[in-house]
Specification:
Elements: H1 5-8, H2 14-23, H3 26-37, H4 44-51, H5 59-74, E1 77-85, H6 112-123, E2 129-133, H7 143-153, E3 159-163, H8 169-177, E4 182-188, H9 192-198, H10 207-211, H11 213-219, E5 224-229, H12 236-253, E6 258-262, H13 281-294, E7 299-302, H14 308-314, E8 321-323, H15 332-337, H16 355-364, E9 368-370
Helix pairs in contact: 3-4, 4-12, 4-13, 5-13, 6-7, 7-8, 12-13
Length: about 375
């Protein structure tokens, strides 16, 4: 691989981004809004202005434009998905994560029969889009394990994504061949110095290897690549700015790849981590609206980390994909179906609505819930052909 995002990041030093956010003026914000209104493409400095503190009084104007852009690009469709946790074994010591190897939680991993049972439980709700997750323990849940899980699940789901540890391009290519079509990777924070402190031990400590994972996934043939930062680890405006740059880089470098962004905020979890830089709900709204105006054709995903009221209101302001019927525990869907206790969840969710309730909420906002927006070319997928 030649040039990648790790080569671009140094062009925007932290101190320069901080200074740019602090020095943005109302005139900069108004010029960015005028460009968006006229259908022009915003530059990185325009995006920075929309993220800046001085843009706060213009949230209603941003919301109006974000709604218009979203309708023009995506119509009234909102895709539904849910995560499927394969395992919670982990060798990392990420200080903000419930799966931290030092946390004394019950560890487990699904057998392939249990993977299929979990998939059947999810498919029974109507969902056709899943996201596979594991901790970072390649000796137990290596690429071969994830690939086999994807093959077992493919008859039930036309779209299978992964949100796992960083892999090589060849490993991503193997997963694509197994039926995985989308990739999610949270850089967590783009502040390299802070990143090292947040990841004191484990393979995830390699900042650059993780940073370049979306490039490798795109080069390996992933249909969709989704990036994001975990808001609350560093100053949210900085990480929001870098996330937008990262998504823009992927769009430009891999024009055939669908690009999406997630905007998760910190949630309570097993263990303790108190060095949080809060991002309020208002901050999150500003971020999502600025992102929609900067990257009109990028998908934006919102998880159950946010409370129902906020998720419902953001559907019309840039969000194109939303989770439903979520469990962040290993085998959580089957356990819930059987009324059983489940393993320790990765984090607490704020919106526990099931699929039917989430569909009703989307419809109440005047939008259409979509189960399936992608059809694989092979004949492996068999369930719900008429969905």
């Amino acid at each position: 691989m030649s040039r990648c995002f790790a080569d671009v990041l140094p062009e925007w030093p932290l101190e320069d981004v901080e200074a740019g956010l602090a020095s943005a003026t109302s005139g900069d914000v108004l010029r960015a809004l005028e460009t968006a209104q006229a259908g022009g493409r915003l530059e990185a400095r325009d995006y920075m202005a929309l993220l800046s503190p001085v843009a706060s009084p213009y949230l209603e104007d941003m919301a109006r434009l974000a709604r218009e852009v979203t309708l023009r690009q995506f119509g009234r469709a909102v895709q539904l998905f849910t995560p499927l946790y394969l395992a919670n074994y982990c060798t990392n010591q990420c200080v903000y994560c419930g799966f931290n190897t030092k946390n004394h939680i019950h560890r487990s991993m699904l057998t392939m029969d249990e993977v299929e049972a979990e998939g059947k439980a999810i498919a029974a709700t109507g969902l056709r889009n899943i996201l596979l997750l594991t901790g970072d323990a390649p000796k137990l849940t290596g690429p071969d394990y994830i690939a086999e899980a994807a093959r077992r699940l493919r008859p039930y789901f036309p779209s299978i994504g992964i949100e796992v540890y960083s892999m090589t391009e060849d490993e991503y290519r193997m997963l694509v061949e197994a039926g995985v079509d989308s990739f999610t990777m949270f850089q967590e924070t783009y502040n390299e110095g802070l990143y090292a402190r947040l990841h004191p031990a484990g393979p995830k400590r390699d900042f650059r290897f993780r940073l370049n994972a979306p490039d490798r996934a795109a080069a390996a043939g992933m249909r969709c690549v989704n990036v994001g930062a975990l808001l609350g680890l560093d100053q949210w405006r900085r990480d929001a700015f870098y996330t937008g740059l990262h998504a823009d880089w992927i769009q430009r470098a891999y024009p055939g790849v669908e690009v999406a962004v997630s905007a998760p905020r910190m949630r309570p979890h097993e263990g303790s981590f108190n060095d949080i830089h809060p991002a309020s709900e208002r901050d999150l709204v500003q971020y999502i609206q600025a992102l929609r105006l900067y990257l009109p054709s990028a998908g934006i995903t919102l998880s159950t980390r946010e409370r129902p009221f906020l998720r419902d209101r953001l559907i019309g302001l840039g969000i194109t994909k939303i989770s439903a019927g979520v469990s962040t525990a290993v085998g959580g869907h089957v356990h819930a179906e059987n009324g059983e206790e489940h393993d320790t969840a990765q984090f607490e969710i704020a919106d526990d609505r099931n699929v039917d309730q989430m569909m009703a909420a989307i419809a109440a906002q005047g939008y259409q819930p979509v189960f399936k927006a992608w059809e694989p070319l092979d004949e492996t997928y068999a369930c719900g052909q008429s969905a």
